[in-house]
Amino acid sequence: MGPLSVQSHLVMQNGQSLTEIVPADGQPDSEALGIKFSMLKSQREYVLKFYLPGFDLDGIALTTKGFNKRTLHLIANRWDADGSVQFDRRITFSADASLTSIRARFENQTLHVTIPRKLA
C-alpha cells in the first residue's frame, strides 16, 4: 500500500504581509516557484525527490511526526531580497514504511529521501 495522504502548504512573505498561494483547486501552487516532487515505490523502499530551486541545505528540516511517527514532514525556507518563502509538505505513510531508518541527501537543488519498507 502506498502513502495514505500528501498535504502541502506554501507561504510567501513580502514585508509584513503573508500570502498563501492556493489556486482554485485548493492545492498550493508550488510549481509557481519551480518546486517539484516525485515518489517511487519498490518492494524494498520509497524514494522521494523534492526539487527545491533557490533553497539550500541550511533552510531545510526533515522530521517524522504523528501517530506512530508515520508522517514525514519537510519544511524548506528561503530568504532573499524580496522576502521569504516557506514550503511545507507532510506525507503520511502506511505501516510498511520504516521512518526510523530514513536516509536523505541534498545535491543540485534536489532533496533525495529514501525510506526502507518493512518486509512482511
Question: Any overview of this molecule?
Answer:
The chain is mainly β. The protein has a single domain (5-116), classed as Immunoglobulin-like (Sandwich). The protein is built from no helices and 9 strands. The strands form 2 sheets. It has a 5-stranded antiparallel beta sheet with strand order 2-1-7-6-5, with no helix packed on it. A 4-stranded antiparallel beta sheet has the order 3-4-9-8, with no helix packed on it. It is elongated, with a radius of gyration of 15 Å. The two termini are 12 Å apart. The model is unreliable at 1-28 (pLDDT under 50). It comes from Malassezia cuniculi. This is SHSP domain-containing protein. InterPro entries: HSP20-like_chaperone.
What does the secondary structure layout of this molecule look like, with pairings?
Elements (H helix, E strand, L loop, with lengths): L4 E10 L2 E4 L15 E6 L3 E7 L8 E6 L5 E10 L2 E10 L10 E5 L2 E7 L4
Antiparallel strand pairs: 1-2, 1-7, 3-4, 4-9, 5-6, 6-7, 8-9
